[in-house]
Design brief:
Largest sheet: 7 strands, mixed
Shape: globular
Distance between the termini: 50 Å
Helix content: 10-25%
Strand content: 15-25%
CATH superfamily of the largest domain: Metallo-dependent phosphatases
Number of helices: 8
Bound molecules: copper (II) ion
Structural class: alpha/beta
Low-confidence stretches: 1-26, 298-346
Length: about 425
């Protein structure tokens, strides 16, 4: 049975709900304090006065063995209405880091550094983070950092000395830290994926550790099933979580879902961090995940409830697996579609909305050119399961076309969000 936390379980003197009530969502980060092998979290939003860049009066950071900071999901390059200025909000997070009385030993960025894996986006992030007064910055990639090239550029920039797609471990003050990668080679219809090579490495890496060693694991997509309907989980994490059971103190940190969620299971504490860029809806409360536009004056009260009490066992939320066909298409687009559907050589369109392909299944005559148009605020791809066709990452309003000359059934998916699947039937 899982326990979801919505108040000050850490007895750290600061009520997390209280935090969130007055949280300006910009520049959120988590300060992790290690005390005798146990990690305690502090939301950083209320610690530092943004005007002075110093700790607010009355706030004391408890004594600790050491501290580090987690930031996540900076999405540099994003400029849609949910946050037209992701640079300023990341800068706010850095101001908070720099306002700590003792510089954090290091910082962990749990992925989605960039929005579209563009070189200049990574450059901007690097430039901004140079201003952070912290030790080394450790990274893991998010799915937005490995678009188009399976993460080669990410590896070149951030993966020096790592294994495989960028996983690694290190020891500090007797704590074993592990950075895992679960955003590469995801399978059609699936969730985040670690892969066999990484799983093998993982077992070897922890083999020699004593049960009493505190372990901290971080990865982009949650390693526990937060909400599989939205791809918020990792397919092959069961072995990892089971191997971690023998340790007395385990903390698992993730990003990806742009909201705080915490769960304790036995000796394992799971924690997802907020985004420095934009909020996402609570699981199941919207047609799909993705950037959530919040009126500026409502932002604070809304963030007061981002501590989600989501229980898998008794949720009655709408299942989003079955896309509502043409839910977001205009009447004209629907007429156009009906007119063209199945006609020889006609052009057909699949719209991408709310993290689904609409229609999910499309029947066309051989010789038909099919065009996919992305109407979401996040990039998606169109990749056939047999790799016979593949788009680049499609940003908002980008489109991709493929002409189907041979009859057959063509299954495809989004390689960024592999639960998004579709089918073209060519007759
Ligand atoms: Cu996608």
């Amino acid at each position: 049975m899982s326990i979801y936390i919505d108040k000050d379980e850490n007895k750290d003197g600061i009520d997390r709900r209280g935090f969130l009530k007055c949280m300006a969502w910009a520049g959120t980060g988590v300060l992790w304090i290690m005390q005798g092998g146990v990690l305690k979290s502090f939301g950083m939003s209320q610690l530092v006065d943004m005007n002075t860049g110093k700790l607010k009066s009355g706030i004391k950071i408890p004594k600790s063995d050491f501290t580090f900071v987690q930031i996540s999901d900076s999405h540099i390059g994003f400029s849609k209405e949910a946050n037209p200025d992701v640079i300023t909000t990341l800068q706010a997070a850095i101001t908070k880091i720099n306002g700590m009385p003792d510089a954090p030993e290091f910082t962990v960025h749990t992925g989605d550094l960039s929005h579209l894996s563009k070189a200049d986006e990574f450059d901007t992030l690097d430039q901004l983070l140079k201003g952070a007064k912290t030790g080394k910055i450790f990274y893991v990639p998010g799915e937005h950092d490995v678009l188009n090239d399976d993460g080669k550029q990410y590896l070149d920039r951030y993966g020096k000395g790592t294994m495989g797609n960028g996983w690694y471990s290190f020891d500090l003050h007797g704590v074993h830290f592990m950075g895992l990668v679960n955003v590469v080679n995801m399978k059609a219809g699936g969730l985040g994926r670690l892969g066999n090579d990484q799983l093998e490495w993982f077992e070897k890496d922890i083999k020699g550790l004593k049960d009493s060693t505190p372990v901290v694991v971080f990865a982009h997509i949650p390693l526990w099933n937060v909400y599989p309907e939205w791809g918020w989980g990792t397919d092959d994490s069961a072995q990892v979580l089971s191997s971690l059971k023998r340790f007395g103190s385990v903390t698992v940190l993730n990003g990806h879902i742009h909201q705080i969620m915490q769960k304790i299971e036995g000796n394992i504490t799971f924690h997802t961090a907020m985004s420095t860029a934009f909020p996402q809806p609570k699981p199941g409360t919207a047609p799909g995940p993705g950037p959530m536009k919040v009126p500026d004056d409502k932002l604070r009260s809304l963030l007061g409830i981002t501590d989600v009490n989501y229980l898998e066992q008794d949720h009655t939320l709408a299942v989003t697996d079955t896309p509502l066909l043409f839910a977001a298409a205009t009447g004209d687009q629907m007429k156009e579609h009906k007119k063209n559907n199945g006609t020889l050589g006609g052009e057909n369109q699949v719209t991408i909305d709310n993290f689904s392909f609409n229609p999910k299944e499309l029947t066309v005559a051989a010789g038909t050119k099919v065009t996919w148009v992305n109407h979401d605020d996040v990039p998606h791809t169109v990749v056939s399961t047999d790799k016979s066709f593949k788009s680049d990452a499609l940003d908002t309003n980008d489109q991709y076309s493929h002409t189907f000359s041979q009859t057959g059934v063509y299954e495809y998916y989004c390689s960024v969000h592999p639960r998004m699947t579709g089918k073209i039937i060519v007759k």
